[in-house]
Amino acid sequence: MPVTKEETNWGMLSHLSALAGMILPFGSILGPLIVWLAKREQSAFVAEQAKEALNFNITVVIAALVCYVLTWVLIGILLFVVLAIYWLVMTIIAALKASEGISYRYPLALRLVH
Fold this sequence. Notes:
By secondary structure, this protein is mainly alpha-helical. It is 68% helix and 0% strand. It has one domain (5-99). It is built from four helices and no strands. It starts with a helix and ends in a 15-residue tail after the last helix. The model has no long low-confidence stretch (mean pLDDT 92).
């Protein structure tokens, strides 16, 4: 079954909603979580993409905590910068793929939410 334009828009929003983390604490998790909870029953594509975004952003938060701990040995600062760039680039790529109706799976993401 083809993915509708509305589904691709919601799929894209599920990834882009993680950018709320730049403004709100844990916004990068709350954005995809809200999309997933609101749309998981209505569209398998949106549910899959929102879950994927949620899992990726949980993984990034865990990695950021590790970077924070590693700041005591100074390597954490560099790792945090690399992590931030990786997060932004992967979020944009995922949003673009979802806008095309293509299911996207983030590399290196823990699959915590099923």
